[in-house]
Amino acid sequence: VYPNPVNNGEFYIITTLNRAKEVQIFDMLGKKVYSNTIKENEKVKVSDLKSGLYILKVAEDDKIATTKLVIK
Question: What is the pLDDT of residue 41?
Fold first, then answer.
């Protein structure tokens, strides 16, 4: 995930498989605030989200990863 923190309202997710991914973003209360399927090398646009700390969940094939995402 780069850049993290997100400064310009968009970021990229690069994986070793680099296939289509299901992306979900949750606020710190656990509420889903973003959900989308992105293609390989497609940028994720989050300019409508407020500044703060979020949880990013990425699912690709049978793998799932979560990480913190900071939006400035």
Answer: 87
